[in-house]
Amino acid sequence: MGRKRKKGNEHLPRGVYRQKGRVVYKPYLGRAGNRTIFGNEIVLGPVNMPLSKVHEAYEALSKKTPFTIGWLLNEYKKSGQFKKEPVNNSV
Fold it and tell me: How far is the CA of 3 from the CAs of 6, 7, 11, 45, in angstroms?
């Protein structure tokens, strides 16, 4: 069970926090074993930014899914399996 959010962050969308004078979005990417994986922090704006602007920025970022076909192809191209020499199966 997760812990409750801090009082200053209760009204913000999921994954959005107030840190060091700015509003930050940390996208949740899932779990690996017993660890929770988050993406890189994305600064949405200053702390005094209107809540409506925070929600607009959050919706624009959260609609992008990181796991698309393009992402999958890029991951495959980075892998060692792609870099190996092709096997010639002709007999």
Answer: 9, 12, 16, 25
